[in-house]
Amino acid sequence: MRNHWSAFPFRCFCLLITQPAGVRSPAKELILRSYANLLSVSDSYQPAVPRYSSNMRLKALWFRKILYWCLCLSILVEPCCAFFDLEELKNNIQSGVKVAFEATRDHTLCQYYECCTPHYIPADINALRNSLEANLFGQHIAKKLVVDAIGGHFQQIHKSEKPLVISFHGAPGTGKNYIAEHIANALFKKGSHSDFVHKYLGRIDFPLESKINEYKFRLVEDIKRATAKCSTSLFIFDEVEKMPPGLFDTIVSLLDNHAYTREHNFRQSIFIFLSNVAGPEIANQLKLILDKGTWRESTELHDFERTLEISAYNLEGGLYRSEMIESHVVDHFVPFLPLEKRHVENCIIREYHKLTGSTNIDEALLKDILREAVTFDETGIFSNNGCKRVSKKLESFYYNRLRKAYRNEEL
After folding, report:
1. Under DSSP, is residue 236 helix (H, G, I), strand (E, B) or coil?
2. How far apart are CA 21 and CA 27, in angstroms?
3. C-alpha 139, offset from chain centre
4. CA dihedral over 361, 364, 365, 369, signed as positive or negative
5. Is the distance from CB of 315 to CB of 109 less than 8 angstroms?
6. Is the entire prediction scored with pTM above 0.90?
């Protein structure tokens, strides 16, 4: 049962301070008489006299001090009796200190160093959408899915209960690395050079299967360290098919729902896995769909997603028999379709524009690069290497033309 006597001094104090100084009331006089008796000043107390003697003023000062400490004691014993919410006051003080700290940091340290703030992490989803529309060819499924997934993640990032995990699959040269680069550029002010973008290469960072336990420990520590520095971090794992099987089993708990500790919050991060695994399976599935009379641009994610999940789980590589797939922590399996000749031509024109500033490429040069840089499968429809060798082939051919033109001018 609640002890009402513990709140009595507080209630008396409230009654006193709410009464105007010149107003006499029975309750006020009763309280003053009670505390005057407590202080042995009952002989001097005269409620009808408006002015106190100097001795009485001194006693009243001590009386106020006693009331103050009674108030503090009452609030400690029974916080519900306070005229303010202690928890709300605590939260307001904490939020005020946080705002002051962030404002000071933004105008001092963050002027010179990259900080985990919206200024350095603008997450410009419109810029991502526009850059993919202009520069990525033949991947209508990947473009839509990536923009929607990342846009949705950042829209609800402060309520996110799980990090965003995406797995890219497709043949070499279809745009997996290219789209990952555009994601980094759109999300971070410094793009892929940001301290909050972390990229791992299979053959460089995890080359030996015999050191799998060492790699597992290092990977977990890297992710913890990165998210402690900035919870909105981007992790890119390239050449997953070259990584030791089971490498990602130790990070499954970091990618699952409610993945956070007191020191680390993994729920706002993004993990992207790039793999050449399932490239042939995607091509075969696309051929079957096209043979049924469906247009390439009419294909949808559900036409390929199950194929990707099964292939990634059963084919050699970092996701082979992986607990990531078994635990269903991968949110999206993204298919990168094999490119056709028209898509490769668009890649050549784009690279030519980067090199010269013009899109009016000579037809003869375009055919020469197609003949040298691209091989096609047995059907003659899909490119085996996509746009992978286009850039350097174009540079070589263009330099050769400039050199010949210079020689002709000398002659």
Report:
1. strand
2. 14
3. 24
4. positive
5. no
6. no
